[in-house]
Amino acid sequence: MRLDVIQSACNELEQACAVIGRMVQVMEVCGTHTVALFRHGIRSMLPANLKLLSGPGCPVCVTDQGYIDTVIDLARRTDCLIATYGDMIRVPGRNTSLERLTLPNVRVVLSSDDAVALAQKHPEKTVVFVAVGFETTTPATAVAIRQAQELGLKNFTVLCGHKRVLPAMHALLSGRNDKIDAFLCPGHVSVILGSRAYEPVVKNFNRPCVVAGFEAEQILLGLAKICRQIADKRPTVDSVYSLAVRPEGNPVAIRIIDQIFEPCDGPWRGLGCIPDGALRIRQQYADFDAQKRFGIEQIPAEEPGGCQCGKVLCGLMDPSQCGLFGKKCTPDHPVGPCMVSTEGACAAWYKYQR
Fold first, then answer.
1. Residues 244-282: tens digit of each pLDDT
2. What topology does CATH give the domain 3-55+176-183+192-235?
3. Residue 22: beta bridge partners?
4. Which helix (H) or strand (E) segment is 279 a member of?
């Protein structure tokens, strides 16, 4: 950690916020940023008129309840094996979670490759890979589908819950929370999409977008650039994460996403159905689409009573303002998904801010 860089960034922040002279609301889109901000103690270092908002940057948190209920229904089938990442087993559905069901056909995997291997090992079962995440994890799911096709696996399917970050940012500024002054853009997603991907946000909404990594100096430099842009009234796309993020992104990863998936309208928890906000498997790979294989229809979402995860994800309230926070809703007994995920805003507030 370079203290000289941190001190310089803090000075720049103070000067820019003094020029702005009003409350500035910056949303960190990424859940990893949310945790890093708390872990590094950055919130305590900020000017009084700079407020950070935790956005819809945790894939577990934004997965709608209808998807969770669909996974639970499939887990109850004796002919299926559910392959899922660890965080997803604790997300509550309407009445229960995968963890509470304790069914023998639910397997936690570390990668999409593990899910393909599971299908090879159990030809008598249909493996359903619970595929959630943003553009960061989507290429791995695409590779898994292609690999299953090459191997001739007839028992491998994907329940696609992948989301697209940019449409969500547009949806926020178009109605859910137009008080956001700027975005601290996600580092991992930007490795795939590239920093140029945020140019439409600047063009259409006149909001600064700065990509940053996850170290303290990176985050503070990113915030300093954002506030300087606001002070100068010259919003643009910028990046302080040039070591990992190129303007054009990762063309290979983008190409395989486009080959296997296509954009579609999709539900986000807290933001509703976002046009082109999700991905679906293209028709030529329909044999691997669990939704088509099992004839699944979308289950309407029903949020738990009193849960304010939707408002938290839109930056409309802090987790501590929810009446369930720290009382009925804790990491050991989560009511909403933002308390389940290690990158959820509520879990981060519970661990660091109480």
1. 999 999 999 999 999 999 999 999 988 899 999 999 999
2. Rossmann fold (3.40.50)
3. none
4. strand 272-281
